[in-house]
Amino acid sequence: MANRILTGIKPTGKLTLGNYIGVLKNLKRETERGECFYFIADLHALTLPIEPEELRQNSIDLACFYLASGIDPKKTTLFLQSSVSAHAELNAIMQNYLYMGELSRMTQFKDKSSKMKESAIGLGLFSYPVLMASDIILYDANIIPVGEDQVQHVELTRDLVNRINNRYGEILTMPKAEMRKVGARIMSLSDPTKKMSKSDPKGDIFLKDEPAVIRKKIMSAVTDSGSEVKYDVENKPGISNLLTIYAAIKEISIEEAEKEFVGFRYGDFKKAVADAVINELEPFQARYKQILESKEYENVLKQGAIRANEVASKTLKRVQKAVGLLTIE
Length: 329
What we know:
Tyrosyl-Transfer RNA Synthetase; mainly alpha; single chain; 14 helices; 3-stranded parallel sheet
């Protein structure tokens, strides 16, 4: 079977440099490895409160960001999750094959729910991994590029696929999580012990930030004691994060990045990191603005939904038939 690759991003909050390095920067390259399905995970965005207009605008921005990354919509399928009803339909089936104990052990759920009143925790947040598993299963995706915090969800999907296949025969494709070696986890510039997460105006570099703002944020980034530019997450988390950003942007190893900055002062090192980030993001931002103004994204999403529905409906019918639901053609 040829590779089928699936990637989704939630349209919640402003996208950051972490999203660019972890996902968007790699999309065009992924299309050389197999058939790619890229989607805007707008149903997932509803698991926490969000204003309707914010969700709509974020979805438009995300569609434009996807296209600005350089993907060819004729070779990839770009679509809104909510435009494919099979996501919700398969979710309704799959929620019966995953268990409360499994879902309650999910790290992301524990992290997010621990900061909320119990009365405010929605069912969607708890069952988020079921919908994510359905997303993956629908497209017979065997490669799932994810951040470190999503690996556990893919592992749960693998357990679910095993469970279904053992009971009903080999009807589902086994997915595998893939993480990038460099830049898999970009941290906050103001607190390098926390992930860059769309919620810290000082510590996050947003994809719509002007170059001057990006430079100011990087030059103000928290650094560490000493003066050596060296990768040491425990003792030099700030410098290590900047090295990770630089290496990911330049597509070199951490070791190669370290060698470039032997003898550099922190200020000169930060300037080089800022230059690299700005040189990378400026053309990306220009493409984003052009796509937004032309509304090119609208037709791409319409065509993507048609293709996604074709593939997803076949998987859904296969599962419906296997579990005993009466399907009348």
